[in-house]
């Protein structure tokens, strides 16, 4: 029964993973799937000089499965949060979505803490959402 719950949880989207892969030479898909170290390497090396980016075309299904198993499912949509961070992160919109109103306002007034807050969130957004879901589960809602 527990295995069924884990197998059916779908926290990340393959479609979005492939769309981000189009910009994958900058590491976008790797950040999305919770791989910030390699995402950063891809960013600075343009997807390991294009070779890693091309190989990732075939690795996305396994990265998606790993993310689905690693991160806690719940009411906050990972994909929506990532899209908000990617396109509106400097304005704190993803933080508002997560219910973090104070930091959202700070991001809004400082352009994402001068970009450093946005960078931090690229490294930690999946874990922030997963921990939020785990707390909801532990405390019953």
Strand content: under 5%
- Element order: H for helix, E for strand: HHHHHHHHH
Judged by helices, strands and strand pairing, the structural class is: mainly alpha
**What is the general shape?**
globular
User: Which consecutive residue ranges, at least 5 long each, have pLDDT under 50?
Assistant: 1-7
Helix proportion:
over 70%
Mean pLDDT: 91
Enumerate how many helices there are, as a single number.
9
Major sheet details:
none
Distance from N terminus to C terminus (CA atoms, Å) equals 21 Å
Number of strands: 0
Gyration radius over CA:
15 Å
Summary tags:
single chain, 141 residues, mainly alpha, 9 helices, globular
How is this fold's topology laid out?
Blueprint: H1 2-8, H2 14-21, H3 28-32, H4 36-49, H5 51-70, H6 78-88, H7 93-97, H8 101-114, H9 116-139
Helix pairs in contact: 2-5, 4-5, 6-9
Give a quick precis of the structure.
This protein is an all-alpha fold and 141 residues long. It has helices at residues 2-8, 14-21, 28-32, 36-49, 51-70, 78-88, 93-97, 101-114, 116-139.
């Amino acid at each position: 029964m527990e295995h069924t719950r884990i197998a059916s949880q779908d926290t990340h989207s393959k479609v979005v993973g492939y769309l981000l892969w189009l910009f994958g030479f900058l590491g976008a898909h790797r950040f999305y799937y919770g791989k910030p170290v390699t995402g950063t390497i891809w960013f600075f090396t343009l997807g390991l000089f294009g070779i890693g980016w091309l190989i990732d075309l075939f690795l996305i299904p396994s990265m998606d499965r790993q993310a689905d198993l690693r991160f806690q499912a719940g009411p906050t949509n990972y994909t929506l949060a990532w899209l908000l961070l990617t396109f509106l992160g400097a304005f704190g919109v993803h933080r508002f979505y997560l219910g973090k109103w104070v930091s959202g306002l700070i991001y809004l007034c400082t352009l994402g803490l001068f970009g450093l807050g946005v960078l931090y969130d690229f490294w930690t957004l999946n874990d922030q959402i997963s921990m939020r879901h785990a707390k909801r589960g532990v405390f019953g809602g």
